[in-house]
Specification:
This protein is mostly helical. It is 69% helix and 0% strand. It is built from four helices and no strands.
Length: 112
């Protein structure tokens, strides 16, 4: 049997991390998935769309939007967890590639 863990912050992190793993080419591609995950369990559709409009008016809209989603659901701690969850996969990927890039950039096939 799988043990059910009742931790709202772990739920926020898991949702955002899962969505963050498929962001490629811009965050707008995951907006329908985000909406399906958070409406109506975390917030209303109006709250979602208002936050999206607000986030689009600022630099780094998906960074801001992920924090907004977490904040509406669980306040400042939720904002931090959502932000880290959504962008964790990209940060991990960058740090995983850096050691290989240090070697590959010296090869002729990888030079511009």
């Amino acid at each position: 049997d799988v043990m059910e863990v009742e931790n709202v912050y772990l739920d926020i992190f898991e949702t955002m991390y899962r969505i963050g793993t498929i962001i490629f080419g811009g965050g707008q591609v995951v907006l329908p998935m985000l909406q399906d995950e958070v409406v109506p369990s975390w917030m209303t559709k109006d709250q979602f769309l208002q936050g999206l409009g607000l986030a689009q008016s600022m630099p780094g809209p998906l960074f801001n939007f992920s924090a907004y989603l977490g904040a509406v659901y669980q306040g400042v701690p939720g904002a931090l967890v959502a932000f880290l969850g959504l962008f964790g996969p990209g940060v991990i990927l960058i740090f995983a590639v850096v050691p290989f890039w240090a070697r590959l950039r010296h090869l002729a096939g990888f030079k511009a």
